[in-house]
């Protein structure tokens, strides 16, 4: 069985590094991103089982990234664990439909407990609705097709015609 993949999106280098190291020690595959835009780019490259998302970041904050994810049919059901120095009440006003919340500074054991719970819940939900494990492959195909279409749209009509002949 392939290890679960977790995307840590946080502009605080040390927080991202510590989370990455601890999660990798627990057997997870971990990707990191420094802001929401970078996080969305990483989501397009590889299917992700869980996003650990800070709210306050430059360029694109966590709330904007979460809204974008929820508006995309492929990303809409990726579980999100919010981390923030803000209170959960404030976080709830900014981000809808997240599966867990940790207030910074947090204890590593709390992170691991939430990660395990969220991933187990996601696995149970997938089994209940009959979604195949091939959802990861479906996501890869979706993003590959989208990337190909974007590449094709970026070329001139003449370039596209020449390739189709």
The CATH superfamily name of the largest domain is Response regulator
What distance lies between the first and last C-alpha atoms, to the nearest angstrom? 43 Å
* Tally of helical segments: 7
Q: What order do the strands of the largest sheet run in, or round the barrel if closed?
A: 2-1-3-4-5
Shape assignment: globular
Quickly count the domains. 2
Report the CATH C-level class of the largest domain.
Alpha Beta
Order of helices and strands: EHEHEHEHEHHH
Radius of gyration: 17 Å
CATH fold type of the largest domain: Rossmann fold
Helical proportion? 40-55%
* Total E-strand runs: 5
Low-confidence stretches: 147-165
CATH architecture of the largest domain: 3-Layer(aba) Sandwich
Q: What amount of the residues lies in strands?
A: 5-15%
Q: What is the average per-residue confidence, as pLDDT, rounded to a whole number?
A: 84
Largest beta-sheet characterization: 5 strands, parallel
Instruction: Give the oligomer, counting copies of the same chain as homo and different chains as hetero.
Output: single chain
Which class best fits the helix and strand makeup?
alpha/beta
């Amino acid at each position: 069985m392939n290890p679960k993949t977790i995307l840590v999106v946080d502009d605080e280098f040390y927080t991202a590094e510590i989370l990455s190291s601890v999660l990798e020690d627990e057997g997870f595959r971990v990707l990191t991103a420094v802001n929401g835009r970078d996080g969305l780019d990483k989501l397009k490259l590889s299917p992700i089982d869980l996003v650990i998302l800070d709210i306050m970041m430059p360029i694109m904050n966590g709330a904007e990234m979460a809204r974008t994810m929820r508006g995309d049919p492929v990303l809409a059901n990726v579980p999100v664990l919010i981390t923030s120095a803000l209170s959960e009440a404030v976080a709830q006003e900014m981000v809808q439909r997240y599966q867990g919340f940790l207030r910074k500074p947090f204890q590593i054991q709390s992170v691991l407990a939430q990660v395990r719970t969220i991933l187990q819940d996601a696995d149970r939900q997938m089994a209940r609705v009959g979604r195949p494990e091939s959802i990861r492959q479906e996501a890869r195909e979706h993003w590959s097709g989208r990337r190909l279409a974007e590449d094709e749209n970026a070329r001139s009509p003449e370039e596209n015609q020449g390739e189709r002949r």
